[in-house]
Amino acid sequence: MQIPFFSLYEKVQLILTNKIEEFHYYGYDALTEQDLWKYCVDKVWRKQDVQNLRLHELTSGIFGTTASEVLNYVQISDFKRNELNLKLSEEELQGLFHPLKE
């Protein structure tokens, strides 16, 4: 997975690690630093020029993020990515949209 804005990512990697350790402490073991970074780039700073953000703005965005926000983002991203690869037959599609009535 390619990390967007890698030079900024390197600057705040210790902060990302700290936040992910917090998530893991609360039982969100599946989340990674890359997931948190991608969420912040795509959602927290989406209307800003990420390249020109100051260190305190990056830090604030990371520390202000909750595990449930990142988890929802990751799940939806995975669902969208898998949805494009999902190949169902016409019969399977009909079964999904018109289930058999008992």
UniProtKB/TrEMBL annotation:
InterPro entries in UniProt: Post-transcriptional_regulator
Protein's name in the database: Post-transcriptional regulator
